């Protein structure tokens, strides 16, 4: 029997090594990893510049308290504020913590409590972020939730029109719902959500824990679509080194003063060495443009090669965040893809989710496509 709490439905496969887009299991089998630790190792496993930065920092100092100045934290934050809407950054170590900080800041700044989120959203597993999550299964069994969260249907403009009153601290949303099935918000819906925030006098929190740091071909997926007040980041931020961040506009800075919030591990030198190397990579000239082009090319290829199959209902996504919605449950397909050497994730019951390294090669995408064509093709024949 395992000595772990069985909170994960683990696959019978344990990864011993990873390099780039490839991992090796304990039996020495190779897999093309289009999960990337759930959009975490977005630059691939053991990405050399991140490895070098962390290795160099290992020789200097690993951790110091936030009572001290931390130069790398300042530098990482400056890279973010120089390239985003944000004027200030708070570092933490996970997505839930980043969202937790966002919820606290929104409440403190507005002096109000209500927060509207969306059905099928995912914001984390802490008490506040679980309450923010629009999925019943995440909340059941935990008793009374933190009050004042309500869930609106996603991509529904009229539901936003229905929001009234002066009690709102924020509307919180994902630009592309990740766990909820790789569902991109429509431009009209996102704009309406922003307008609703202005109408209600509340803040717009964009949860970019999964969509941020180049995943969709932009540093943040909201760029060009939304003007947020707060954005949260984590997953891809440290390329495997645990790191999270909450970004905010300067009007919010007075609401987070010494004693307002904090984290022991948040922004420590080792994490910041990784974060800074990640940011320097994705912000290098042409990098994000390549992700965007390669992503849309890959989606076109998937549509061309798989779109006609009877079990495929829809292929959608942005950049390297792609969903293939099928007509039935995908669990078996995912197992077969794995047996053929391709690791992919489900999102909900019927969506195959692809989260390849954002710098994967055309050849690697081709290999994935060949395996998917084979497995989905055979299933399409079985199911007609
Ligand atoms: C994964 C995820 C989270 C939670 O992040 P953790 O690091 O697991 O706490 C929050 N929001 C979104 C959109 C996510 O995809």
TrEMBL record:
Gene Ontology molecular function: any one: N2-acetyl-L-ornithine:2-oxoglutarate 5-aminotransferase activity
One Pfam family from the record: Aminotran_3
Keyword Transcription: no
Residues holding pyridoxal 5'-phosphate: 95-96, 122, 207-210, 264
Catalytic activity annotation: N(2)-acetyl-L-ornithine + 2-oxoglutarate = N-acetyl-L-glutamate 5-semialdehyde + L-glutamate
GO process annotations (BP): L-arginine biosynthetic process
Pathway: Amino-acid biosynthesis; L-arginine biosynthesis; N(2)-acetyl-L-ornithine from L-glutamate: step 4/4
Keyword Cytoplasm appears in the UniProt entry: yes
One cellular component term from this protein's GO annotations in UniProt: cytoplasm
Coiled coil: none
Cofactor binding note from Swiss-Prot or TrEMBL: Binds 1 pyridoxal phosphate per subunit.
Cofactor: pyridoxal 5'-phosphate
SUPFAM superfamilies in the cross-refs: PLP-dependent transferases
PANTHER family listed in its UniProt record: ACETYLORNITHINE AMINOTRANSFERASE, MITOCHONDRIAL (PTHR11986:SF79), AMINOTRANSFERASE CLASS III (PTHR11986)
Classification via NCBIfam families: argD, PRK01278.1, PRK02936.1
Listed name of the protein: Acetylornithine aminotransferase
Species in which this protein is naturally found: Metabacillus mangrovi
Gene name of the record: argD
């Amino acid at each position: 029997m395992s000595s772990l709490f069985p909170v994960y439905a683990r696959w019978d496969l344990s990864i011993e090594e990873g390099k780039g887009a490839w991992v090796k299991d304990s039996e020495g089998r190779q897999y093309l990893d289009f999960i990337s630790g759930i959009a975490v190792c977005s630059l691939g496993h053991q990405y050399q510049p991140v490895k070098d930065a962390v290795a160099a920092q290992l020789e200097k100092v690993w951790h110091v308290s936030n009572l001290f100045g931390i130069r790398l934290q300042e530098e990482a934050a400056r890279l973010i504020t120089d390239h985003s809407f944000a004027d200030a950054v708070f570092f933490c170590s996970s997505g839930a913590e980043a969202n937790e900080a966002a919820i606290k800041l929104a409440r403190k700044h507005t002096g109000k409590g209500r927060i509207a989120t969306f059905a099928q959203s995912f914001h984390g597993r802490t008490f506040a972020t679980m309450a923010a999550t629009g999925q019943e299964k995440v909340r059941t069994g935990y008793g009374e939730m933190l009050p004042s969260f309500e869930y609106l249907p996603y991509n529904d403009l009229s539901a936003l029109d229905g929001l009234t009153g002066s009690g709102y601290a924020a509307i919180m949303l994902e630009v592309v719902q990740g766990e909820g099935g790789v569902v991109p918000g429509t431009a009209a819906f996102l704009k309406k959500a922003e307008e609703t925030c202005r109408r209600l006098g509340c803040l717009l929190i964009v949860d970019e824990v999964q969509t941020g740091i180049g995943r969709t071909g932009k540093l943040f997926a909201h760029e060009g679509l939304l003007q947020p007040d707060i954005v949260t980041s984590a997953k891809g931020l440290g390329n495997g080194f645990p790191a999270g961040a909450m970004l905010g506009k300067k009007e919010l800075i007075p609401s987070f003063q010494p004693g307002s919030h904090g984290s022991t591990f948040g922004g420590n030198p080792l994490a910041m060495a990784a974060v800074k190397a990640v940011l320097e990579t994705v912000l290098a000239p042409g990098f994000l443009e390549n992700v965007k082009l390669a992503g849309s090319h890959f989606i076109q290829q998937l549509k061309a090669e798989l779109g006609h199959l009877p079990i495929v209902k829809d292929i959608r996504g942005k950049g390297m965040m792609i969903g293939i919605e099928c007509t039935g449950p995908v669990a078996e397909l995912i197992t077969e893809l794995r047996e053929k050497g391709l690791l992919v994730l489900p999102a909900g019951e019927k969506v195959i989710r692809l989260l390849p390294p954002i710098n994967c090669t055309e050849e690697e995408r081709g290999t994935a496509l060949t395996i998917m064509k084979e497995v989905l093709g055979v299933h399409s024949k079985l199911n007609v």
